[in-house]
Amino acid sequence: MLNHFFPRTVVLYTDNHQRTPPLPHLLEYTPKGLYCPAADVYIDPHRTVPRAILTHAHSDHARRGHKYYLAHRSSEHLLRLRLGKGINLETVGYNEPVVMNGVRISLHPAGHVVGSAQIRVEHGGEVWVVSGDYKLEPDGVTQPFEPVRCHTFITESTFGLPIYQWPAQAEVFEEINAWWRHNQAAGKVSLMLGYSLGKAQRLLQNVDHGIGKVYVHDTIWNVNEAIRQGGTPLPAAIRVDRHVAKGGCIGGLLIAPMSVIRSDWVNKICPYVSGAASGWMALRRMQRSRSTDYGFVLSDHADWPGLNAAVEATGAQRVIVTHGYQSAFARHLNEQGYDAHEADRFFQTGLLRDTPVGEEREWED
Ligand SMILES: [Zn+2]
Ligand SMILES: [Zn+2]
User: Fold this and answer.
1) Which of 176, 230, 242, 321 is most buried, by the most CB atoms less than 10 A from its CB?
2) Nearest ligand by distance to the CA of 299
3) Distance (Å) from CA 273 to ligand 1 centroid
4) Nearest-ligand number for the alpha carbon of 196
């Protein structure tokens, strides 16, 4: 079986019985990040490299300083906004293969945020897919997730525990709209906090604009402009900068990054009620913590059923679990008959634990 072409434990012997090191996998983990030796390219590297393929524009995946970038076309202006206008960036559409040293590489929709991609790597008849971050439910903004058949699937596991099961998006937005109406009737601003790339656009796209005016914080305004320039349409909203007049947004919905809750700026928009949209709210609701007034369960990552469905749809025999609940999800997959591994152990490195994990850090700009 293809998956077992290069088992790590096999030691090849030459005629004179000298040991030859095991052949590298199609993808390996190095101190700079996930690496394809055959193509000489890294995927989402966290240190400076000559050639990088980026799955998406979140800051824990897209870092400054690489000499060459390959990413999806829709994320071009987002990447230039975050990494600098002058970066050496080549863009492709989904399913438009690029050949690097004879290795066929293509990007496929991950459904996570605008321009997010799974990376398919094919060489000598062997196919690996790196999921990057992904979710299965269409969000109305991002091109929906498409499963890609492969022999080895490297999957994230940010919410890889059975306790994480998302309500349907339509249900969550009914809840958000009702909350907004309620605050409006009370003469308050509905301050909705979410990541500036992903959650902000999903909120803007799916709230009921018939209720009142929708405002966006300056940071989100800039992200929205970069997304529109990349060819993804978004509903209009009113820009709010640091000179906002006190009471100016009353009755409206103001979408802002999480960080504003700790800034002086937030005092200018009183009276407000705050809400936050995140997958972590599923837990927070149980814990009744109160850093914001309301929590809405809305995530750009797959929940437990989503992760399982995605793995099954790839047809992969071997699954490598990274970014999140590695051991719990890998154990579960093994019980289901997969050849599943925690990325740390599979690549025989403790390095993965040092890389930023999951959603929590992505709202930082
Ligand atoms: Zn992400
Ligand atoms: Zn991530």
Assistant:
1) 321
2) 1
3) 27
4) 1
Q: Which CATH number fits domain 2-164+301-361: 3.20.20.30, 3.30.930.10, 3.60.15.10, 3.40.50.300?
A: 3.60.15.10
| Distance between Cα 293 and ligand 2 center (Å) | 26
User: What distance in angstroms lies between residue 62's CA and the mean position of ligand 2's atoms?
Assistant: 10
pLDDT higher than threshold 70 for residue 292: yes
Neighbours of 102 (CB within 10 A): 9
Q: What's this model's pTM, rounded to 2 decimal places?
A: 0.90
Nearest ligand, CA 110: 1
Give residue 8 CA to ligand 1 midpoint distance, Å: 30
| Residue 265 alpha carbon to ligand 1 centre in Å | 26
> What's the gap in Å between 48 CA and the centre of ligand 1?
19
List the chain domain ranges.
2-164+301-361, 169-296
Domain 169-296 carries which CATH code? Answer: 3.40.50.10890
Taking the centre of ligand 2 as the mean of its atom positions, its distance from the CA of residue 57, in whole angstroms, is: 9
Instruction: Give residue-wise pLDDT tens across range 236-266.
Output: 999 998 888 888 899 999 999 998 988 888 9
- CA 200 – ligand 1 centroid, Å: 13
pLDDT category of residue 214 using cuts at 50, 70 and 90: very high
Cα 46 to middle of ligand 2, angstroms: 12
Please give the pLDDT value at position 354.
43
Distance 57 CA to ligand 1 centre (A): 7
When the pLDDT of each residue in the chain is averaged and rounded to a whole number, the result is 89
